[in-house]
Amino acid sequence: MSDLNTYDRFQQVYNSTRILTKNYVFDAEKYQNYSPLFLPTTFAVSYGMSFASISSTIVHTFLFHGREIIYYWRNSRNEPDDVHMRLMKRYKEAPDWWFAVLFVVFFILSVLCVRLWDTGMPVWALVFALVLASTLMVPVGMIYALTNISVGLNVITEFIVGYIIPGRPIAMIFFKTFGYITNAQAITFLQDMKLGHYMKIAPRLLFTAQLVATLWGGLVQLGVTAWSSHHIKDFCQPNQAAGFSCPAARVFFNASVIWGVIGPDRQFGFGEMYHNTLWFFLVGAMLPLLTWLFLRKYPNSVAKYIHWPVFFTGTGFIPPATAYTYGTYCFVGYIFGYWIKRRYFGWWAKYNYTLSAGLDLGLVFGSLCIFLITLSPKVNAPNWWGLSVVMNTADAENRPLITLKKGESFGPSRW
């Protein structure tokens, strides 16, 4: 039920190489001779929730914040300066042409990347991905600014590219990266700029620091990944001894199979196995509308606390996250966001966010210490109930409810 892998009709992990040509292009004949692709329950539900999150984000932003966005769009240059802006005017601004030149340079590099290598992605698709990321910047940014929940464009970009460039998994990965990651990184960039504004960091210094850190971070990440893939045994395999199983990367890969190889039409098209998940688009669009209409008549009702984009986006990390992960998340959120806030509001207002930042730093430092300590072959990780209980489940042990006999298969007879 809860897994980050996809499966074939023989109860085995789906082997995408059996439906691809030598050039990594979908082969319909091989697909017919092999198997349709089956999604675990959490995988299928998470896709439905992602469909709803996109439509609910757009409708919610238009209904609840449309006038506000239009007002500030028209009057952003005429707003009186607050204390932060007055202090920041002591510094020289980072000129707009710096950002323009940076965009042109990296756009050219992106074009060269998708054309010089056999990615199967045309330049117009690259432009489309960037336009999509830019267009949805406002609704995604509005939700993130108000709720600290980031609406991901990963599924909608996969859905779109699966139709416009079918059967091209490499092109799907590139389109998803330019559409989804561009939007996510832009939101993070705005967050950093806002923090720098409040901390009174000179704009030109902030620009330089972010540019250098981004370039250096990209090189380091690429180097670490390349080194790990060549020096760590069974790297990114499910049963890797040291736990380097790469769950997020495997979800990314499985998405390339679902959307880029087989395509949304064969998975979610009319009459197909997961067609009903498309109703989530309509559900996500209708619920904010119904809530908005209800609040117009009953503005002080409990419905004012309902936020559908947050509801649908909250499960976006499943998979690879599990119910265990979200159980901890909900428990801590309830304690600090409700119980302590109601009983000890003074402490909550003064220390809650500081404590959150401290715990984040502690997590990073603790993870680094654990990683360095357990690198030694003479050190064994502690074995206690809190670590083992999650692994002693049917999902963790990959135990199916019904085991097929050799030569048996399940599912539809035609696909």
Automatic annotation (TrEMBL):
Q: Which UniProt keywords apply?
A: Membrane, Peptide transport, Protein transport, Transmembrane, Transmembrane helix, Transport
Query: Which Pfam family name is an example for this entry?
Result: OPT
The answer, when asked if Ligase is one of the entry's keywords, is no
Q: Name one GO molecular function term.
A: oligopeptide transmembrane transporter activity
UniProt main location, coarse? membrane
Q: What Gene Ontology terms describe where this protein resides (cellular component)?
A: membrane
What are the recorded Gene Ontology BP terms?
protein transport
Q: How does it sit in the membrane?
A: Multi-pass membrane protein
Parts of the chain that traverse the membrane: 44-64, 97-117, 123-147, 159-181, 201-220, 241-262, 274-295, 324-341, 353-375
Q: Where in the cell is it found?
A: Membrane
Q: Which family does it belong to?
A: Belongs to the oligopeptide OPT transporter family.
The protein's name: OPT family small oligopeptide transporter
* Source organism of the structure: Geotrichum candidum (Oospora lactis)
